[in-house]
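ok trying again, last paste got cut off:
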Amino acid sequence: GTEGRAPMACRFLLAVLLASSAWVAASAGAADEVMVPRPAAAAAALTFGEGYTQLFGDSNLRLHGDGKRVHISLDERTGSGFASQGAYLHGFFSASIKLPSDYAAGVVVAFYVTNGDVYEKTHDELDFEFLGNVKGKEWRVQTNVYGDGSTAVGREERYGLWFDPTQDFHRYAILWTNRTIVFYVDGTPIREVVRSEAMGAQFPSKPMSLYATIWDGSSWATSGGRYKVDYKYAPYVAEFTDLELRGCAHAPPASCEPEAMPSGQRAAMERVRARHMTYGYCYDRARYPAPLPECRVGAEVAMYLPSGEARSSDRRRHGKRHRRAGAADSSL
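nice, full thing came through this time. structure:
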């Protein structure tokens, strides 16, 4: 996910979590730096057999490249998915993903960590959900955070992408420590959740496993369910590669603590959020007349409708102006 960018060495290291990984800085336009997690040569991504197991979907999950690439598909019979073999208390989880092209309304591809199979009523979850669309309109990315079974309290954010996620692989990552959660796209942070007293147990705090699934979300995924999955376009295939699990299964939480987010990385995150975020739960006054306690709402609230949707139609359509593959993106 760093095509067209010149990597530079940097000193931002995660103590134990990424002890075998190197973090490199990459240029994302003028003098800005973005911290991009990249594995060291000796820390190759796991093959499917080394770290994962199939969840469902029989022949709709296929392995390629000696187990280094996984294709999961949705057709009239079933979706499909896989999960990590182990559970982790904090970690760094990432994959390069290529989404189905053409008409994909109603299709949901999810890359997430959860413990719902162990803690049915008090589960934790951190989500990347990719929501398909009708032909000619872009996939949207949604992130969400649940803790201690807080499914009645949604913390969704949605973003338009600054590239076409169906044309090439792009890297999506979740960093989870005992103090912070960060979501990344191609090494650029797009969301940070900082643990606070106000969140209490709703900050995820129990071991979780990694999951990747594709399924029929016709009832809600595209325009609130207006557009359904059309199986004449099936199979819908999502491709995964470079699967990384940097978990802290047995380490004390403090060993997984990163340093503070560097200022250049934070500036890049703020630009992405200002230009590409199309919905934020903290700005949804219809749903939450009083913002949830962790929300810090300032003057930027004027950029959002009472529904939490971005006012700017240009922002909502920003994904149409995709950059050429391999070209530097100065819009971040």
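cool. The two ends are 14 Å apart (CA to CA). Residues 48-264 form a domain with the Jelly Rolls fold (CATH 2.60.120.200).
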